[in-house]
Amino acid sequence: MLSGDPLLSGQIDLAVVLIVLLKVVAVFAFLLVATMLMIWFERKVVSDFQNRVGPNTAGPFGILQTLADGIKFFFKEDLIPDRAERRVFILAPLLTVVPAFLLFTIVPFGGDFSNGHDGSVELFGHTTYLQLADPAIGILFALAMSSIAVYGVMLAGWSSGSKYPLLGSVRASAQMVSYEAALGLSVCAVVLTAGTLSTHGIVVAQAGSGWGGFIPHWNLIAAGFVPFVVFLLASQAELNRPPFDLVEAEQELVGSYHTEYSSIRFALFFVAEFMNSVTMAAIIVTLFLGGPAGPALLGPGWLWGIIWFLLKMTAFLFLFVWVRSTLPRVRYDQLMDLGWKVLIPLSLGWLLLLATFWVARDQHWNGFVTVALGAVVGLTGYGLLKGAIATSKARRLEGVVD
Amino acid sequence: MTDVDAQDGEADTPTEIAPETLFGTLLTRSHGQLVLHPTREEYAGLLATLQADGYHSIIDLCGVDYLTNFSRELPPGITPERFEVVVNLINHREHSRLRLRVQIPESDPVLPTAFGLYAGSEAMERETFDMFGIAFEGHPDLTRILMPEDWIGHPLRKDYDIGRIPVQFKGAPANR
Amino acid sequence: MTATHELPTNVNQTSEGAQELTSAGVVAAGERLRELGAVLRLSENDALLAEREQVSDDETMIINMGPQHPSTHGVLRLMLELQGETVLRCKPIIGYLHTGMERTGEELTYLQGPTNVTRMDYAAPLFTELAFSLTVEKLLDIEVPERAIWIRMLMTEMNRISSHLLFMATNGMDLGAVSMMLYGWREREEALRFLQEVTGLRMNHNYIRPGGVAADLPDGWRDGVLRLLDMLPPRLAEYDTLMNQQPIWRERLQGVGAITAEECLALGVTGPMLRSTGYDWDLRRDMPYLAFDQIEFDVVVGSFGDCFDRYAIRLAEIHESMKIVRQCLENMPKGDYRIQDKKVTPPPRARIDESMEALIHHFKIFTEGFKVPEGEAYVAIESPRGELGCYIVSDGSSKPYRMHVRAPSFVNLQSLPHLMHGSLVADAVAIISSVDPILGEVDR
Amino acid sequence: MSNETRSTGGLLESGLEGLSHNFFTGTLEELVKWARRHSVMPATFGLACCAIEMMAAGGPHYDLARYGMETFRASPRQADLMIVAGRVSQKMAPVLRQIYDQMMEPKWVISMGVCASSGGMFNNYAIVQGVDQIVPVDVYAPGCPPSPETLMHAILTLHDKIKNGELTRRKGEGAGLVVEQLGPNGPVPVTLGQG
């Protein structure tokens, strides 16, 4: 049903433009408010974990704290250091914050997916999805955008003309590039399971209940638990959230890439970081937890879609904050080890395994033999990897002693 | 201590009680603590002897400026000088301490460094140099440690003004 | 320091001059060996190794950490030469908190002295007061009453607990475990509450004075101690769950910044750092002062000398201190809390109202102070950071002729270049933290 | 808004005076002050004993986070408030001044403890006798060290100051302090807060 999105229906009239504008405004506003609340939520929840009260003077329960921060930063003196590369210095925060906004466009945030519905809603006589855009390459777009955000961080550090930011930007590029791979591979598993790149398609594929009717058909189960875990870890690294917040590691690199940034430019980094948290939670929900899919109880189905979506997202945001307040920061080399030696091999192996099973099912191969072969190949691969790591380590130590 | 009471020095002056010595250096006791009084020339050799004897760790090294106190009590044969460098050593095996007091004349405030034997003396000697202007010959990095690099004078010397500024009550209403 | 401060072009602005860490190519071979070996003598073989390790200037970067940096524990400044993220050389620069306390100490009477020295180690102020008072008492040749001794032990051990809790907090913070920091503060606040009940101040107590302590323990002090003793064990178990049982924490600390006992002794390093290498040395047990010879407690030693051992030892020492506090609670004798020696002690408040002589005496003691016979003495105690010594020279007047404090942090800091060689920037932060320097004590 | 009675410095005087009576700008001013008051981000600038108490004030018993102040910024560029917590030595003074200069307007300074305020008991060669010789101070917190409650009182006082003060206070006028800085050719008097 291609006409699900008005823009693709071929006949563009005023209503279509209005619907798209409405959705743009709604998504923009939602994202801003969600980010504002996320910052407040994080500060409050972390306070709770630490037996503190948290912000409570700005507005009721301190809920306007982020607003106060924003206004203050907006009215603060701005400075571009003499040694900074002027144009890049100005460009960098925008390069982080714009992708953060764009990332959310492909997230389906509502719609009725219960009882075989496909999540479409009727607006002004047009059928549309509750998602800003549904390009056929959906999830690739998300990966592309999150990669572009890396450039913002990298350029910010480089253009500051100072050493701590430079160190931070070097860390950022290495960290994000290596975790991008793990992220992409775990997304591949989802795409393989859902059979489509479109985020809407991925949600539809997960809608309804399988396995006896009470276990949801989520990719968390369908694609296996491993891609989910890999994605969760890699996304934390991608977001620079603790325990993988090496890029900003205040105790080591002061402010790292944003050390030289002040006023609204710094606020943009700040906002982008939390906006990315919100978006990443939304993407995890979309990829693995069926997005807005869930049973509709009372009232209109599309509303329940939004409610389910928000609930699932909040659960992940809470998880993020929980992890932040519990774990110390990992070290740079440990982070790299985790990325290259654990997450990437693991997600690659799992992807191959998953693909084998799909092929085996289609070709009606003997299930037992397939599993046994898969296990043998997997174990061999694991052994080889171990051997390779051990050899390289031995070589390195030898080199030091030499 | 095995040889605290050993009279290493031969009784040169039979009329007087021979001064107590340890490792060939004059020994006194201050409130039950053992104090050695090596000369500047003996200092480096004594440290080597002591380290071989089990005093493995340097605990403290500091200077004292006796500008106004030349009449202090010292064993016979030791002329009081303006500066003293006081070194505290510890013997972990015998649970004992030793203190060395070396007289340093004002005209030539130099002492060989203990750095070669006790690496831990590095910062202490720098501090003593910074505060008293006593130079340590052979020290690898004899620069100021506590005061700014371009500071003039050595603040813990007795003739260095403490730098007290009279307390002012700026802007206090005085309409009485 | 951030921003503009670390670039070589700005070096002169900070008037650091020769304290600057110069790039490796310029440094003479001898000095380079010294730095690489962290002022330890290198064997011929090591020297050759170091020679081969020479890297070209293009690959390295000199970076300035501090004096205003979130994890340098105040105003410590480090010059680091980095190759990528690896620390090749490190030079600690101190003096940014130099307060001239040793000079000020010469201007204050012996009675005023503790006010001055208590501000050195502001995490464990009672220890400096104790070292000062013990030295003055040694010069005076007086014995303080039993009760004063036990009060001193009780209070210093309480202070050791609060100091180690502070370490737990800052160590957690430096490694990014922010919650640990807040938990550390939470418990420390409870310990401070007791100290405040007794001394009237949260920090810088001026409680232990020559001749005894400033005031007797208040009514109900036992409840305060017991409350803390009951509260701490479950909280410490929480730390254990939060930190020790967590792989990231162990990975971050184990094997990082290792040092051997020989190196520690050569550098004069004392305290938990020395014990972490497995060297069994604690002044409380091995050269007892106060009444520590009458007390049962264990000296906790590590085995690897790394950051984790230093952390674990401090955690365990909290338990040991609680043991000591419990024994102080049981054995606290009755009697005077300060020596009843007219020369040293001011008359009690009640007598001032009755007797003119007492008033004059009181006035004289607080204006002129008491005279201390000529001589010199050095007394050392075991502070939470190591051997804290005080060396006082008296010329017979009522003010010290020279007052010198042997600060453990000052000496322990010398080990930094050695600990940091070859570690990563993130390790550098963990190492500074594990040395637990208090800059007030380092710079005095 | 009773803006008629007070002189509006800087921005508003430069051709915008008439607007200060306007409802919109008046409200905007209130809004900005409100925001600044509730979002004072301190720089991590601990020096001595007071720094411990400053950190303790961020701990669970006192919790500076209530005022939105748990966000200690390590980079002075992003900080609004410098809490000079502890004694300032002669060696530290230039560094302190540099960090103050690196902070962006509007910025405030709390001098925490007697050592920072007046040198305290250390009236000697090593300690700057009052940090107000180096940077303009807004609030002095007494005590040695001030307890967290005292610091919180100082912060609330600062909030009051922000609320009742001028929006663009320092433009041009500065604190009016003259100090001598050592230039390459001897001492150069510098008036703080200008330029």
Polypeptide structure, described:
The complex is a heterotetramer of chains A (402), B (176), C (444) and D (195). Chain A is mainly α and 402 residues long. Helix content of chain A is 67%, strand content 3%. Chain A has one domain (2-331). In chain A, α1 (14-49) packs across α10 (263-288) and α2 crosses α10. Chain A is globular. Chain C folds into two domains: 3-93, no CATH class; 101-339 and 371-406, Cytochrome-c3 Hydrogenase, chain B (Orthogonal Bundle), CATH 1.10.645. In chain C, β6 (375-383) and β7 (386-394) form a beta hairpin. In chain C, α8 (221-244) runs antiparallel to α13 (307-331). Chain C is globular. Chains in contact: A-C, A-D, B-C, B-D, C-D. Chains B and C meet through β4 and α2 of B and α1, α3, α10, β6 and β7 of C.
Concise synopsis of the structure shown:
The complex is a heterotetramer of chains A (about 400), B (about 180), C (about 450) and D (about 200). Chain B has helices at about 40-50, 120-130; strands at about 20, 25-30, 35, 55-65, 85-90, 95-105, 110, 135. Chain B has about 180 residues and is α/β, with parallel strands linked by helices.
* Total discrete domains of chain C: 2
* Structural class designation of chain A: mainly alpha
Number of domains of chain A: 1
The CATH homologous superfamily name of the largest domain in chain C equals Cytochrome-c3 Hydrogenase, chain B
Task: Give the helices and strands of chain A as they follow along the chain.
Answer: HHHEEHHHEEHHHHHHH
**Percent of residues in beta strands of chain C:** 5-15%
In CATH terms, what is the architecture of the largest domain in chain C? Orthogonal Bundle
Binned, the helix content of chain A reads 55-70%
Tell me the number of strands of chain C. Answer: 8
The main sheet of chain A orders its strands as: 1-2
Main sheet: strands, sense, barrel of chain A: 2 strands, antiparallel
Number of H/I helices of chain A: 13
Gap between N and C termini of chain C: 22 Å
CATH topology of the largest domain in chain C: Cytochrome-c3 Hydrogenase, chain B
Let me know the largest β-sheet of chain C: 3 strands, antiparallel
One letter per element, helices H and strands E, the order of chain C comes to HHEEEHHHHHEEHHHHHHHHEEEHHHH
Q: What is the alpha-carbon Rg of chain C in Å?
A: 23 Å
What's the helix and strand layout?
The complex is a heterotetramer of chains A (402), B (176), C (444) and D (195).
Chain A: H1 14-49, H2 65-74, H3 86-103, E1 120-123, E2 126-129, H4 138-159, H5 163-194, H6 199-206, E3 209-210, E4 215-216, H7 219-222, H8 225-239, H9 250-253, H10 263-288, H11 301-326, H12 332-363, H13 367-401
Antiparallel strand pairs in A: 1-2, 3-4
Helix pairs in contact in A: 1-10, 1-11, 2-10, 3-4, 3-10, 4-5, 5-8, 5-12, 8-10, 8-12, 10-11, 12-13
Chain B: E1 21-22, E2 25-30, E3 33-36, H1 40-52, E4 57-65, E5 83-91, E6 96-104, E7 110-112, H2 121-132, E8 135-137
Parallel strand pairs in B: 3-6, 7-8
Antiparallel strand pairs in B: 1-2, 2-3, 4-5, 5-6
Chain D: H1 23-38, E1 42-43, H2 49-57, E2 81-85, H3 93-102, E3 108-112, H4 114-118, E4 139-141, H5 148-164, E5 178-183, E6 186-191
